[in-house]
Amino acid sequence: MSELTDYDKLTPEERTAFDAAAKEREAVEQAALPYTWTQELGDVDIIVPVPQGTRGRDLVVTIAKKKLSVGLKGAEPILSGELCKEIKVEDSTWTVQDSNAIHIHLEKINDQTWWENVLTHHPKIDTKKIEPTNSKLSDLDNETRGMVEKMMFDNAQKQMGKPTSDELKKMEALKKFQAAHPELDFSNAKIS
């Protein structure tokens, strides 16, 4: 069922079952990887388990714009391949955590896309199902915050059957015009 039209033909119950099966398959595929990973729009964090007592000098880690390789010296890499998307090498880092894991932090070049996988040859996740963490209004710049607050106000007004901010502005302008021109009769006017 690769066609979107096939999915559209499913009943709500069938869609729920299909989504649950896809999520379960995805979870099994991701659990089989030699690492775990999480992402935000701007970065990817990878945790690679290594033998207890591992130190930085025991590792060979290569982070390039489109390539990642991690392994113990003298052994096959634990993971190696082409990255899903390009990264900012100078802002990406790795550290050893608790002597038993490597934490790799990759900064995305395009910080407005979700990655389907870390390495191109690994199983993909469905990026349409990603639910981003909630951000706070205080995290936004003033212009964006104003737009979001206006959208939230307008949405709340619509749900209550009240006029939106734009409609309120039009009504206020009409009132001012009527007050300035009492000689005009607006009783039969249709305002759109």
Summarize the structure.
The protein contains four helices and seven strands. It is of the alpha+beta class and 192 residues long. It starts with a helix and ends in a 12-residue tail after the last helix.
Overall pLDDT, averaged?
86
What portion of residues belong to β-strands? 15-25%
Helix content: 25-40%
- The tally of domains stands at 3
Count of alpha and pi helical runs: 4
Please report the first level of CATH classification, the CATH class of the largest domain.
Mainly Beta
| Second CATH tier, the architecture of the largest domain | Sandwich
Uncertain parts: none
Span between termini: 46 Å
Helix/strand class: alpha+beta
Shape: elongated
Characterize the largest beta sheet: strand count, sense, and whether it forms a barrel: 4 strands, antiparallel
Number of strands: 7
Strand order of the largest sheet: 1-2-7-6
From N to C, what is the helix and strand string? HHEEEEEEEHH
Here the CATH topology of the largest domain equals Immunoglobulin-like
Radius of gyration: 27 Å
InterPro entries: CS_dom (IPR007052), HSP20-like_chaperone (IPR008978), NudC_fam (IPR037898)
Subcellular location: Cytoplasm
Function: Required for nuclear movement. May interact between microtubules and nuclei and/or may be involved in the generation of force used to move nuclei during interphase.
Keywords: Cytoplasm
